[in-house]
Amino acid sequence: MCWDEFKSVASAESSMSFAYCDAITHQLVDVVQDRKMKNLVRYFNQFPLQTRLNVKTISIDMYAPYIEVIKRLFPKAKIIIDPFHIIQALNRELNKTRTRKMNQVRFKDRRLYNKLKRYWKLILKNRDDLQSYHYSYYRLFDWLTHSQGIVDYLLQEVPSLKPEYETVHQLREVFKERNSNDFKEELLSVQKNICLMDSIVFYKHLRSFYRIYKILVSIQLFLMDLLKELTTRLKYLKETLMATLVSLILEIEFY
Fold first, then answer.
1. How many CA atoms lie within 13 A of 136 on its CB side?
2. Residue 3 phi, psi dihedral angles, 5° rounding
3. CA gap 131, 129 in Å, rounded
4. Is-contact 31 21, C-beta < 8 A?
């Protein structure tokens, strides 16, 4: 199954409604007016346990109540989280931190405030995509610089932003490489270096990523089992085809 939410119509009780579809046919199955956990539990409890046990995978975003509902009502289902949502959540938290730092200097240093506001995309941009060789004029800067230089300047002027910046980009990079062990180690290092971060909210969000890490591991094991099963089936198919081919060759020679 695939779960998602959408903005409700005016007549609905909640601002966000819930919808799910068949992951194979992509056909919409049903819509629930409210995506709150208690309503989803009540809705899916209508289905017999045996039916729910037959659900193999459920694709979701990072809405925490979905995970709790799946664990409670779909014990055999593997949770699949779209990588897009994980990267999006990391970017969102980093951007919130940048906005908070920006507002702190709004009346103290207007030029720095404007720079943080104007070049927010460079803070979120992949570090490998920042260039440091083509110098040109950038608005609000009185000297020739480049995209890497602008990021370095902002982090130097707002040093309290740097820990969050380094953490988010490191997590994004190891996640891009699909290395679950490095992802876990980076999350653990955040816990050790929390004293460097003045954003408790940011840290709380990162703790949720550690819980998601466990889900990613289960997905990885599921994919490995699936690959093993496919390999076994392909091997059997190959042997069957070879036997059939040999039989045909013998028949032709006999003829």
1. 5
2. -110, 145
3. 6
4. no
Q: Note whether 34 and 12 are within 8 A (CB).
A: yes
Angle CA(213)–CA(216)–CA(221) in degrees, nearest 5?
Answer: 130
Q: Which helix (H) or strand (E) holds 80?
A: strand 78-81
The rounded distance, in Å, linking the Cα atoms of 151 and 121 is: 10
- Asked if 83 and 175 count as a contact pair (C-beta separation under 8 A), the reply is yes
Q: How far apart, in whole angstroms, are the C-alpha atoms of residue 89 and residue 222?
A: 24
> Mind listing the pLDDT tens digit for each residue in 67-113?
889 999 999 998 887 777 778 888 888 899 999 999 999 999 999 99
The Cα 2–Cα 55 span in angstroms is 11
Give the number of other CB atoms < 10 A from CB of residue 9: 8
d(CA 241, CA 226): 22
Which tokens in the block code for residue 127? 């570090």
Helices (H), 74-199: 83-104, 110-118, 120-124, 147-157, 162-176, 180-192
Q: Tell me how far apart the alpha carbons of residues 185 and 209 are, in angstroms, rounded to a whole number.
A: 12
Enter the pTM of the model: 0.64
Single-letter amino acid code for the residue at 157: E
pLDDT recorded at residue 254: 45
Rounded CA gap, 190 and 197, in Å? 9
For residue 175, count other CB atoms closer than 10 A to its CB.
Answer: 20
Q: How far apart are CA 18 and CA 152, in angstroms?
A: 43
